[in-house]
Specification:
By secondary structure, this protein is of the alpha+beta class. It has two helices and three strands; from the N terminus they run H-E-E-E-H.
Length: 70
C-alpha cells in the first residue's frame, strides 16, 4: 500500500513536466496565443501541432503565417 501511495505522489509531482502546449488562434481576431488547454470549439482553433515545451511553441508561433502580428 505504501509503495502505491508513493508512486502516486511521484506521478502528481512530475505531472507538470508532461504538459503539452498548443497554439490557439482566436476565430474572431485571428490572434494566436499559447495555451496548455485545447481549443474551445467556436471560439478558437488549434494551429500547428502539439508542443512539449513553451519555448518550442513560441518559436513555432513566430514562424506561422496564420497568426496576425503587429
Amino acid at each position: 500500500m505504501r509503495i502505491t501511495l508513493a508512486a502516486a505522489a511521484m506521478l502528481l509531482a512530475a505531472s507538470p513536466a508532461w504538459a503539452d502546449f498548443y497554439i490557439l488562434q482566436d476565430t474572431a481576431t485571428k490572434r494566436c496565443t499559447i495555451s496548455e488547454l485545447k481549443a474551445v470549439p467556436g471560439t478558437s482553433v488549434q494551429v500547428g501541432s502539439v508542443y512539449f515545451t513553451r519555448a518550442e511553441a513560441e518559436t513555432a508561433m513566430t514562424q506561422m503565417a496564420a497568426c496576425v502580428t503587429e
